[in-house]
Amino acid sequence: MANTSLHVSSVKSPATPAHVSVPVLGATLAAFVSISFLLCMLLGFAGPEWGLHRPWLQFYLGLTGFDLRSVALGFLQSVIFGGYAGASIAAIFNFVSRRFG
Fold this sequence. Notes:
By secondary structure, the protein is an all-alpha fold. Helix content is 61%, strand content 0%. The protein contains three helices and no strands. It has helices at residues 22-46, 54-57, 68-100. The radius of gyration is 25 Å and the shape is elongated. The model has no long low-confidence stretch (mean pLDDT 84).
């Protein structure tokens, strides 16, 4: 009978903290908010008497109604604030994940 030895090796894989791409999440949230704003404006054009668009539009500064200036201003605000929010969330998530994950 041959000598058989059993070698047990423990492979430890250090847990790598989760990582979110700051530019990708910023661009994703900017696109989502911009599309949502444009859909809200379309709803306002289609049925202004319904009033379903009013709760969303209260968050935008300087909108005067359903004109081209308001659409452009709201779209710009959506891109800026959506990008800022997405990038901020990703940066904070990455920091917390590295620190506590």
